[in-house]
Amino acid sequence: xxxxxxxxxxxxxxxxxxxxxxxxxxxxxxxxxxxxxxxxxxxxxxxxxxxxxxxxxxxxxxxxxxxxxxxxxxxxxxxxxxxxxxxxxxxxxxxxxxxxxxxxxxxxxxxxxxxxxxxxxxxxxxxxxxxxxxxxxxxxxxxxxxxxxxxxxxxxxxxxxxxxxxxxxxxxxxxxxxxxxxxxxxxxxxxxxxxxxxxxxxxxxxxxxxxxxxxxxxxxxxxxxxxxxxxxxxxxxxxxxxxxxxxxxxxxxxxxxxxxxxxxxxxxxxxxxxxxxxxxxxxxxxxxxxxxxxxxxxxxxxxxxxxxxx
Length: 310
What we know:
Oligomer: single chain
Radius of gyration: 22 Å
Distance between the termini: 73 Å
Strand content: 35-45%
Shape: globular
């Protein structure tokens, strides 16, 4: 018996660190659904690939909150409750279903799926599932892998803060130090990313004190109470340690010369996340093997450098 206890203790000692290591690692694919804004963001390797409007649960049947996994992907799933065939235009599930293991279910109860009423997107209207526009759910269905991580939260914080609350770091894993404090000079929108096209988290009243965490291209990454996000730097009166708001020297801009595929890695074999129209202005962050890592609005990824005119 004593040998058994010692052996069990040794096994337990080895297993615990492995579990903690597993929990601390960032998933290669991550979906964050914020039911406060009804937005879904898809991340790959910590980078925001695309953001979509969604519909979520009504007050009587709210979408469950927490960290889950995609456990199945089904095309043309029937709507069993009313005996509607898969693929039928009247099917409220649409023609794509990505089941989640919410409450330990095997992916047959809660899902991210399409719809039979496009005007419902953006509303709190479902029985607990997350609905997407049908074109959007087709795109996501083709990108996402089974076992991808899904975080669902009703929050007024940025995607970075939501992910961090579950031990996941987005983008750079280097901690950012506070660079100063300031006050809003107007009622100021806080956004999920440094772009006017990014989702609005909330609006800070004029005179609100903020802590500045990070700067870049005319934007401040700030915190104010339990709110974290991005604001336009021109509407912040800096109190101390004024940060530099000029663009980083390594970054520049260009325009696409053709309709150009954006990929998850600098390779033609990498997954395509979207296609930018010819003439789209992009910000160039990095160059590697004749590829540019770019952002354009809320889209980020890699494009072939030969089709970018600086």
